[in-house]
Amino acid sequence: MLNNIIVLIKYITRGMVGKCPNCSRKKLFLSYFKMKKSCDNCGINFIENNGDNWFFLLIIDRTLFIFPIVVAFYFEIHPKMIISLSLFLLILFIIITPFRLGICLGFDYYFRSKIIKK
Ligand SMILES: [Zn+2]
Fold this sequence. Notes:
By secondary structure, the protein is mostly helical. It has one domain (2-117). 63% of the residues lie in helices and 0% in strands. It contains 4 helices and no strands. The protein has helices at residues 2-16, 54-74, 79-95, 97-117. Helix 2 (54-74) packs across helix 4. Bound molecules: zinc ion (ZN). Zinc ion is lined by residues 20, 22-23, 25-26, 39, 41-42, 44.
């Protein structure tokens, strides 16, 4: 169990820094927003089935993007502040796209490797 968590964290941190989760030798991205199809070094597929990464991407986006807005509503923060917060988060999200995709790939690769091993 603990071993699994360590492996998962390893994959996610490799993804976060934009490296292959398996070998961590090669970069994940062709350009800022475009992910490579597979690793140049070890050959694993980064995008196994188109749309697989969406699941984790949605969870991470909901958590990081929607949650602060819900909290802002809960504490009855002025609507102008909420709009500013939303815009700020939106811009932040565009900027950290490779980061988010890397984290998602880490999760995705982890669960894929678990399924293959079983
Ligand atoms: Zn690799």
